[in-house]
Structures are given as structure tokens and as C-alpha cells.
């Protein structure tokens, strides 16, 4: 039966680790009617799938009870099994006087828009996430706890009799908020958290007269969390920095007059003026003017691109040389940068297989650590006559060493950093699972038109016969002026390139399947295929041989007749992208094979493939491409299919990973698992390299987190280390793992 499913999205402030996300996830799932929950620490968002009758306000209330700020972002509807697009922006421009489903206005405000719960309930930053880190709630708590600890040391030296109580009081400053978090998490379905382990260890240390160590351990724990939050903030800032690339205002042109307006108010079809030095305020197409465009903020390319009429420009790029007039092609919410942010935030809510495995592992790992710690504390005293204080102390240290924070964050931190780094270079991967899969690719199947080639023909040769090359091109342009046919556009572009200003032919008209006929200066002209020309006048063997050679190079040939005389030949070809050969070579360096799949004729396919150095498969229908992808998979390859996302849809779906090439179109961004926004073939190799770098980073993180724990576990049991090093083993490992993952933010692509 078809079941209606709603998706509600919330901004959740204060999350900075995988443990936070886990508690939010578990709490939200406890509400009746909630079917699925996705939480992104980096984006600071929570998306819940729920039935219409589910109490969404209760979900927000439960999350708020954990100490997080919650604000609704939007709600959308779909049917079970269908795909859904939802609002992912921080600024919901809809009418908020209309409540989200299942809540009235008052409930919505209670759910988190104005009431953010008791301050300091959670050790993380629950104030505004804007501003310097030292103004955050967690920073204030850490500083306060540090001052209390310092005062306790001074008081203990001056009045030794107050020592235990002074340190207990200092410990309480930091431990009370931690204990409250542990209690609320337990009440909401997460009893085995780091807060629980920390609380038991600190209280146990006081009981065995180790109050000084208990106070220091609590302070070090808060310092570790603070550092963790700062590192998480860096990843969050990398996405916010993308949004800041787009200027706030634009120069709107109406009837020849310009006025400054908010960039977000620009409508599709509007004309804007972009002055030298200004950032482009919207995606668009240049109407007039030529200039160099610095695309490094969006693509990472350091060399500016020369662009002129009909070329596309992206929001956030910088106009360098001269004024240009641009026709807006996408509203603010749909421009390239907005889509990048939207897809990255959604991707960060999707867990990779490795991350899901570690989540499941930690579910059993933490209770297991508590059991091991309890056994270490009681078995030696009961069974072997050991001292109770000594072994309880060791058991408490094991609790802290065994905390899974570093292990749990090892994968999501690396994936979030990689998704952000990739997005800044126009590499979009829809989730951790896709990012992980990309590194496994052993064979890439690439479409030809629009993927390996520019997708539009260019004039490659103008060959003189009865008329000169310049006259042949001029007369052909006269015939084609005003036509929107791709071959006509190629001829007109070549004419503009050579400074030719064509004049319109009289009585110009197309003859179906043959070519174009018209009159210039009283002389009848015909421009068409060799076969159509042969019907009008015979071709010499020399011309036929020349045409065959051009065809062997994958070029389409048009012949211009002036009366019955062959004036000249114009050859055109959809040329490979500038970086196509380099991109195929980069794939080979990574050990990834490449094959070209195209519906074009074998001769053209062979010519293009030969120039790029890859295997061609030609004259294919969409179902043939799908079949070939299946054959490659059966042969043992992990297949990535690269195409335009339209006629390649069956093959994209059949591949292990579907990659769309495009400049931000709906199809390019929505059809496949990943998208190369800027159409560079080399970016396919870069995407695979980023995936492999990410998996290497994750492996390093797991080794760091488990390795440190193993070392300190042994040294604690044999009596070399105690509580202080134990908490350093936990918080230190978490900080090291997070810092290692953040290195991926500096990833700059292939050299």
C-alpha cells in the first residue's frame, strides 16, 4: 500500500562529534511514527522521515532536552520509495505563519525556534555557533573549571586540611554538567556514552580518595572536547565559506539603466552588469563583453579563463578585465554554489559502510569496556588478594581508556572533510557510501559527446577549391546567419573568430536531410553533405579522397556550391575537451582502465578514441551501454559510468558508481551518485584519488585510536600509568584523529 511519508529538517546547534550525532539520532527515533533519522555533525542538521501523525514537536523537544538548540528548516512530502527534494538552506524564506505539519505556531516555537533548553546542560557549545571559539559556552565552562582547579591547588598548599574538599568542589564545576548530560542521554535511549564513563570514573576516583586526579581528569576531558569542537568548527566553516563567495548585491540592468539590488532577488532572465574586480552574483550566460574570469574560488584553477558572448559564468567567480553583461540562468537558491552546499549537507547525513560498521561495533564496544573495567576492579581483589583501591583505580582508568569517541569519529570526520574539499573543486559525491565506493573503481566507461568532447561541433578545416578559404567561409556564414543548427553555429563562430561579418542571404531555406540553399549577390549557393552535392554536380576523385581522409579523422564534411561549382569544403568535429587526454592518462596512472561508449559512428568514435588513447565502443543504443556496463562488472571490474545523465541514465544506474558531467544542470546534479560540475575529465581521476586518500586517512585514524588505547591499556594494568594518562589517551586520540581528518580540507586535487 502506498504510504505518505513526510520529511522534516532541523538546524541543530552544538553538535561537534559523532557521539553527539548518535545521541540525537537515538532520541529522535524514540518518537512514534518516526521512520528514519539522518544527522550531519558538520552541517549541523537533522532530517527525519516520519508518518503524518508523528509528533514532530516532540522530536525537537527530546533533542532540546539533550542540550542542543533546535530550529525547523522545512517540511516536504513524498511517497514511500520515491525521491524527495527538501529545503536545505539555513534561511527558510517561506511563510512561517503557516505551521509545519503536526504542529501549531506555539508548538513550533517550543520545538526550538526560541526555547533552547537549560544552558550548560551539554558540554558542547549551545550558544550561537558564530563568533570566536573562546566565547562559546563550552569554552567558558572549561575556563571556569580550570580556574577552580587552580584555586584548589593553591588552597591545598595554603590549608592542607581542605585538600580533598577543594578538589571535589573544583571537579564538581565541570562534572555536574557532564553528569546531567549522561542522565538525559540515558533517559533518551543512550546509556553508554562518554559522559556516563566520565561520571563513573570521576565519582569512583573520589570514593577511593583520588579527588585531585578526578578534578584534573574532568578538566582534561573538557579541554579535549573544546579542541574537538574547534576542529569540527573548521569543517563547518569550509562549507560556510562557499556561501560567502557570492556577493550580497548585484547591478540589475533595466532599459539601459542599472540599479543595485540584493543578489538573492535576481530572477531567471534578468540582465546584470558585472564590473572588473566584481564577483559574479549569479549563474548566467554572457550577453555582451569579453573578459578573463577567475574561477579559482569555485574550481581551484589558478589560471583565469577568457570568456565572451554565450559563455557560461558561475556565481562567486571574479571578473577581471572588462565589464560584461550577463543573463541570469539560475535563481539564488539554484546557483552552482547553493547546489554544492545543498548536496554536501545532504551527503554528510549519509553514512559510509565503514562508518555504519564502526557505529555497530561501538554499540557493543562501550558496554564491553564497562564489563572489562568492572572485572579488572573486582577479580584481582576477590580471587588473588589484590588491594581494592589499587584495582578499582585501574578499573576506573580502563573506563576512560576504553571510551570509543576517537574510534567513532575516525570515519565521519574524514568523510566530512573530504566532501567539503571535493565540493570546493566542483566534485560532488552524494554521501559517504559513494565516496568510499569511488576508490574501488577499476574501470571507467565514458560517454563521448559532452563528456570526453565539448558537446558542440567546431570548424576544424576550411579547404579552398574554386574560391579562397576566406570567401568559402564568408559565403557559408551568409547562408547560415540566423540559424540555430549546431553546424550553423560552428560556422558562424569560426567566422566571428576570423573577423568576418556575414550578411544575410536572400531566400535562404533548409532542404530536409540535404542542406541549406540561398542567394548572395544574385548567385545561388548550396551548403550540404557530399551525398547531397553529388546529386547536383559530380565531385572529382581528388575531392572524394580528401573527404574520405577527413571522415577517417572523425570529421563531418559540408561542401559549398556556388552555382554548379565547388567553392570549398568545410570540415567540423566535436573536439575533445582540452584536458581529456590528460584526464585519461591520470586514470591510467591510478591503475584505472577506460573505455568510451558512444552512439556515434565507428569512424568518428575510432578517431576520437585514438587521439585520447582509449578503447572505443560505437553505434550503441542506451540499452547497449547498460549491457556493456553489466559485462564489465561480470568480468570482475568495479565500474564507474560517466555521462550526461540523460540518455546514459540506464548505464549510470547499472554501474557501481554513476558520475554525471555538467555545469550545474538539474540532470547532472540529480541523476547520478556523483557529479563533476566543471566538466573536466581529469576531475574523474581526482575524485577517485580523493576517495583513496580518504580511505587511507580513515585507516590511519583507526590505527591511532585503537593503537593508543592498546598501549595505555597494557601500561595501566601493569601499573605504569593511571587516570591522568588515561584521559589523555582518550581526548588525545580524539584530537589527533580529528586533526588528521581535517588535513583533508587542504586537499588540492591532482597535480
Automatic annotation (TrEMBL):
Reactions catalysed according to its record: Zn(2+)(in) + ATP + H2O = Zn(2+)(out) + ADP + phosphate + H(+)
InterPro entries xref list: ATPase_P-typ_cyto_dom_N, ATPase_P-typ_P_site, ATPase_P-typ_TM_dom_sf, ATPase_P-typ_transduc_dom_A_sf, ATPase_P-type_domA, Cation_Transport_ATPase_IB, HAD-like_sf, HAD_sf
Transmembrane intervals: 141-159, 165-183, 190-208, 214-232, 364-384, 396-419, 702-720
Gene Ontology cellular component terms for the protein in this record: plasma membrane
Source domain of life: Bacteria
Subcellular location: Cell membrane; Membrane
HMA domain mapped to chain residues: 6-71
Biased composition (Basic and acidic residues): 88-129
E.C. number(s) listed in UniProt: 7.2.2.12
The UniProt record lists the keyword Magnesium: no
Membrane topology: Multi-pass membrane protein
Main location as per UniProt: membrane
PANTHER family associated with the record: CADMIUM/ZINC-TRANSPORTING ATPASE HMA2-RELATED (PTHR48085), CADMIUM_ZINC-TRANSPORTING ATPASE HMA4-RELATED (PTHR48085:SF5)
This protein's name: P-type Zn(2+) transporter
Organism: Mesorhizobium delmotii
Amino acid at each position: 500500500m502506498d504510504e505518505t511519508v513526510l520529511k522534516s529538517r532541523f538546524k541543530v546547534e552544538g553538535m561537534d562529534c559523532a557521539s553527539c550525532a548518535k545521541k540525537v539520532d537515538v532520541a529522535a527515533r524514540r518518537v512514534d511514527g518516526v521512520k528514519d533519522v539522518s544527522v550531519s555533525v558538520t552541517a549541523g542538521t537533522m532530517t527525519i522521515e516520519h508518518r503524518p501523525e508523528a509528533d514532530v514537536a516532540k522530536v525537537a523537544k527530546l533533542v532540546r532536552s539533550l542540550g542542543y538548540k533546535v530550529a525547523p528548516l522545512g517540511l516536504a512530502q513524498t511517497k514511500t520509495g520515491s525521491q524527495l527534494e527538501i529545503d536545505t538552506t539555513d534561511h527558510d524564506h517561506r511563510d512561517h505563519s503557516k505551521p509545519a505539519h503536526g504542529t501549531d505556531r506555539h508548538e513550533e516555537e517550543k520545538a526550538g525556534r526560541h526555547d533552547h533548553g537549560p544552558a550548560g546542560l551539554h558540554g558542547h557549545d549551545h550558544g550561537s555557533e558564530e563568533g570566536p571559539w573562546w566565547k562559546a559556552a563550552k569554552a567558558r565552562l572549561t575556563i571556569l573549571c580550570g580556574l577552580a582547579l587552580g584555586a584548589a591547588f593553591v588552597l591545598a598548599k595554603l590549608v592542607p586540611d581542605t585538600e580533598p574538599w577543594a578538589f571535589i568542589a573544583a571537579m564538581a564545576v565541570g562534572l555536574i554538567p557532564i553528569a546531567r548530560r549522561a542522565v538525559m542521554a540515558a533517559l533518551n535511549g543512550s546509556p553508554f556514552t562518554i559522559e556516563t564513563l566520565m561520571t563513573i570514573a570521576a565519582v569512583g576516583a573520589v570514593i577511593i580518595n583520588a579527588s585531585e586526579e578526578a578534578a584534573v581528569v574532568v578538566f582534561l576531558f573538557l579541554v579535549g572536547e573544546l579542541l574537538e569542537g574547534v576542529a569540527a568548527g573548521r569543517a563547518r566553516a569550509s562549507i560556510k565559506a562557499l556561501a560567502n563567495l557570492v556577493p550580497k548585491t548585484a547591478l540589475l540592468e533595466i532599459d539601459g539603466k542599472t540599479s543595485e539590488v540584493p543578489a538573492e532577488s535576481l530572477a531567471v532572465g534578468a540582465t546584470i552588469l558585472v564590473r572588473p574586480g566584481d564577483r559574479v552574483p549569479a549563474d548566467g550566460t554572457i550577453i555582451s563583453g569579453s573578459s578573463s574570469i577567475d574561477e579559482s574560488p569555485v574550481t581551484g584553477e589558478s589560471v583565469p579563463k577568457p570568456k565572451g558572448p554565450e559563455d557560461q559564468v558561475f556565481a562567486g567567480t571574479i571578473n577581471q578585465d572588462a565589464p560584461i553583461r550577463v543573463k541570469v540562468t539560475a535563481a539564488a537558491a539554484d546557483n552552482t554554489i547553493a547546489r554544492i552546499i545543498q548536496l554536501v549537507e545532504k551527503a554528510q547525513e549519509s553514512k559510509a559502510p565503514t562508518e555504519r560498521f564502526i557505529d555497530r561495533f561501538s554499540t557493543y564496544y562501550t558496554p564491553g569496556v564497562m564489563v572489562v573495567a568492572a572485572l579488572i576492579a573486582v577479580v584481582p581483589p576477590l580471587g588473588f588478594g589484590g588491594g581494592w583501591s589499587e584495582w578499582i583505580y585501574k578499573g576506573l582508568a580502563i573506563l576512560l581508556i576504553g571510551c570509543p569517541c576517537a574510534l567513532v569519529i575516525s570515519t565521519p570526520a574524514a568523510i566530512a572533510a573530504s566532501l567539503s574539499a571535493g565540493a570546493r573543486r566542483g566534485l560532488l559525491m552524494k554521501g559517504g557510501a559513494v565516496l568510499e565506493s569511488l576508490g574501488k573503481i577499476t574501470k571507467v566507461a565514458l560517454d563521448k559527446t559532452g563528456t570526453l568532447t565539448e558537446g558542440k561541433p567546431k570548424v576544424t578545416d576550411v579547404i579552398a577549391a574554386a574560391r579562397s578559404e576566406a570567401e568559402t567561409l564568408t559565403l557559408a556564414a551568409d547562408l547560415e546567419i540566423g540559424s540555430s543548427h549546431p553546424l550553423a553555429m560552428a560556422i558562424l563562430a569560426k567566422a566571428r573568430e576570423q573577423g568576418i561579418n556575414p550578411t544575410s542571404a536572400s531566400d535562404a531555406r533548409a532542404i530536409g536531410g540535404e542542406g541549406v540553399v540561398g542567394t548572395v549577390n544574385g548567385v545561388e549557393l548550396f551548403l550540404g553533405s557530399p551525398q547531397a552535392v553529388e546529386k547536383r554536380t559530380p565531385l572529382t576523385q581528388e575531392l572524394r579522397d580528401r573527404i574520405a581522409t577527413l571522415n577517417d579523422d572523425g570529421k563531418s564534411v559540408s561542401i559549398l556550391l556556388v552555382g554548379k561549382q565547388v567553392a570549398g569544403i568545410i570540415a567540423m568535429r566535436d573536439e575533445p575537451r582540452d584536458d581529456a587526454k590528460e584526464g585519461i592518462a591520470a586514470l591510467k596512472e591510478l591503475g584505472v582502465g577506460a573505455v568510451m561508449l558512444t552512439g556515434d559512428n565507428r569512424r568518428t568514435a575510432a578517431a576520437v578514441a585514438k587521439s585520447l588513447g582509449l578503447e572505443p565502443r560505437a553505434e550503441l543504443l542506451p540499452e547497449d551501454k547498460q549491457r556493456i556496463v553489466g559485462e564489465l562488472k561480470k568480468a570482475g571490474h568495479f565500474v564507474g559510468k560517466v555521462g550526461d545523465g540523460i540518455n546514459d541514465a540506464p548505464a549510470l544506474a547499472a554501474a557501481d558508481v554513476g558520475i554525471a558531467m555538467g555545469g550545474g544542470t538539474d540532470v547532472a546534479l540529480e541523476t547520478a551518485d556523483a557529479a563533476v560540475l566543471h566538466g573536466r575529465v581529469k576531475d574523474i581521476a581526482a575524485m577517485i584519488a580523493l576517495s583513496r586518500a580518504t580511505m587511507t586517512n580513515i585507516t590511519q585514524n583507526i590505527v591511532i585510536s585503537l593503537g593508543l588505547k592498546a598501549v595505555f591499556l597494557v601500561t595501566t594494568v601493569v601499573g605504569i600509568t593511571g587516570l591522568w594518562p588515561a584521559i589523555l589517551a582518550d581526548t588525545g586520540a580524539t584530537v589527533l584523529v580529528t586533526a588528521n581528518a581535517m588535513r583533508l580540507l587542504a586537499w588540492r586535487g591532482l597535480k
